[in-house]
Batch of 2 targets.
Target 1
Amino acid sequence: MTTTGFIVMPLPVGTATFLFGWCIYKVLTTPEKTKKVHGLEFMTPDMNEPEQANP
């Protein structure tokens, strides 16, 4: 690798490492907020109608 590569490469590697560490820190230190978590209720309009036989 060239000298320029050795100079430029720490920036993206350091940024990714910092963001990963910050995310881990936030997950471990943020209080639980399970009351605001909602499940996915997948419902389509055809689920409310009774099935009709095709003539």
Note: The two ends are 72 Å apart (CA to CA).
Target 2
Amino acid sequence: MNATAPAATSVDWKTIREDFPILRERVQGKPLIYFDSAATSQKPRAVIDALRHYYEHDNANVHRGLHELSSRATEAYEKSRQRVADYLGAASADEIVFTRGTTEGINLIAQAWGGKVLRAGDVILLTEMEHHSNLVPWQLIAERTGARLRFVPVREDGTLALEELPALLTSEVKLFAFTHVSNSLGTINPVAELCAKARAAGALTLVDAAQSAGHLPIDVQEMGCDFLVFSGHKMCAPTGIGALYGRAEILDSIPAWHGGGEMIVSVSLEKSTFKKAPHRFEAGTPNIAGAIGLAAAIDYIERIGRAEIFAHDAMLTAHAIDRLAEVPGMRILGPTEKRGALVGFVMEAAHPHDLTTFADQQGLALRGGHHCNQPLMRKFGLPGTTRASFYFYNTIAEIDRMIEILRDAARFFS
């Protein structure tokens, strides 16, 4: 699905901002400007209240008890699974596996699916813009199975060199795994097109939606992907919760990954049999509160509207790029149009770590470093970048204040 910015809406963004208590914090004596939502988003009161309600009224383990609290907790947990399925456009809640986040979801597929399917000579196709979470797990399973990795190159403008795909997406490729939105470049990849090309070549697809799930509309059936992973903490939910979507027939073919309680049908001293997906992949006590918090975050985002959020993101990002160009010695990475809600940049006068520390003294939270994209940074000849990432609770005035701080930094470090 290609994301293009819809028209601006009449959403009351100022009122929405009031839903986030932490945005009233002061840092270094200055009002907090939080531009680090690509690392983790802030949480609205509705999510905080949902967690509190669960712990105060329904706290019990799920699926195992016959008492009232366990029934309530189980109902809330499974309703959350259905909420995620609806949010992603999945055909069934059985296609949703709760995980700790994007990283665990990718590792699950790499180790469980990859461990069963991959053989020497097989190829896993990735891109050069992948986060380490969508690189290292494939390196590990390739070492174990004898499979090989290939990479779609990234152009200087931050987009994929798709003209090279026919030579890369050959019959040896068993899986094509790629990010929806780059966490360093802001590039929005054409996921439906990539999934269709992979399917035509006989390869499965995995979409890393960590930077897109909370920002723009997603429909896994429209995308045509086989797997999709995301993290709740980047979309207003608690940390430690995320989800893996997998097409039902593929999930059913994958062996258990973690062993323990809850994922079994029967156990003897010699052998165990396991439940069908998704419970086969959720050994032990799950993050019940996290799943409930994730459902509350989805409810909150849907009340605003993902198309409206994307339009607001696009407006903020376009303004930031225009204003950053005014700062002396500034290099901006990534495409100029159709970007996600972040901007990575390099200031000639200062190392990203020094610049981020300077900004923090003014209450501005940026992120400096390689952003778990070391191969990508080396490709661009950089030790890292400074990244400003936005969400619907940010404002134009905050971006203008960031520009003032960066101008001060340019003078200071020069």
Note: The chain has a mean pLDDT of 96.
